[in-house]
Design brief:
Elements: H1 2-15, H2 18-25, H3 29-43, E1 48-51, E2 54-57, H4 59-85, E3 92-97, H5 99-104, H6 106-116, E4 121-126, H7 129-138, E5 143-147, E6 154-169, E7 189-193, H8 200-207, E8 213-218, H9 221-229, E9 235-238, E10 249-253, E11 259-267, H10 274-283
Parallel strand pairs: 3-4, 3-5, 7-8
Antiparallel strand pairs: 1-2, 5-11, 6-9, 6-10, 6-11
Length: 286
């Protein structure tokens, strides 16, 4: 029970809210709040500060947080080792992933793995690249998906090349072209997908020295597609995001091509559990 309370604190801090922590631990927001309050009463300390913006560590919480992380990570390692020794009768795999991979890539691999090892549990933490890198460094996940370039503290294997595509309203004149010249982007209102840790498009535009007429900026890719559909402008999005898109839009490659390189990353020097190794075999990147 104490481990569960520690996990409640860890996930609340990582995800920024009791509600999201509850989703990961399969319990209610009030249950997470109760567990944290129980710890604070037991210890006589305030470890989390609550506000409308979410939750964050107090100074006392910051002092305790590394120890809580270490205990939870060691508990996870113990459970995984026991699961391995019992030939996959139990165990868990924690994955840090961006939304597009979680939505369009992982489900088929998860289903295939579950057929072979039905008792292995999965925990998918969705975040941006910087968050995933932080989770790796902290040992909160077994592996994660990042884009190149990455830091020196992780080991990587190429997972896939994801093309960047120009997104156009269906009646747009650029739809007549099989490929879109970069300079043509300067002639139309542009909708920029830009968020912390996700800078593929801004980096590409800077590399090509384009001076676009950016009319809209948003961090939500579905908002970009809806705005393009309404004729508010054109945009560039990774092709993974555009899979099974229901919006009335047209996609074209950039002249000469452009893509983001997605990699599977592990903490440098870490040894994956047997369960993780088996899942990597399913992903065909071992």
């Amino acid at each position: 029970m104490h481990i569960l309370k520690y996990q409640a604190v860890i996930h609340a801090v990582e995800l920024g809210s009791f509600t999201k922590a509850g989703e990961v631990l399969h319990c209610t927001q009030s249950a997470i709040s109760r567990m944290v309050k129980d710890l604070e009463e037991d210890w006589g300390l305030c470890i989390l500060q609550r506000s409308k913006q979410g939750v964050r560590l107090t100074s006392e919480g910051q002092a305790l947080y590394p120890t809580l992380q270490r205990i939870c990570n060691e508990q996870h390692a113990l459970e995984t080792q026991v699961g391995s020794l019992r030939q996959f009768e139990s165990g868990s795999i924690r994955i840090g992933t961006i939304s597009s991979i979680a939505t369009h890539v992982l489900p088929s691999f998860l289903a295939e793995f579950k057929e072979k090892f039905p008792n292995i549990k999965f925990e998918l933490l969705l975040g941006e690249y910087e968050e995933i890198a932080h989770w790796l460094e902290a040992g909160s996940i077994d592996f994660g998906f990042l884009r190149l370039p990455v830091g020196d503290n992780v080991s990587t294997r190429i997972f896939m090349e994801d093309p960047l595509l120009v997104v156009l309203p269906n009646n747009h004149p650029l739809c007549l072209l099989p490929e879109i010249p970069y300079k043509a982007l300067n002639d139309y209102p542009f909708i920029l997908l830009s968020r912390t840790g996700s800078a593929e498009v801004p980096a590409l535009l800077q590399q090509k020295q384009l001076s676009l007429s950016i009319h809209y900026r948003t961090w939500d890719d579905y908002a970009v597609m809806a705005m393009v559909e309404q004729g508010l402008g054109i945009s560039i999005l990774p092709s993974l995001i555009l899979r099974r898109c229901s919006n009335a839009i047209t996609c074209r490659p950039l002249e000469g091509g452009a893509s983001r390189t997605l990699v599977l990353a592990t903490r440098k020097g870490s040894i994956p559990s047997l369960a993780v190794q088996k899942f990597l075999e399913i992903l065909q990147i071992v």
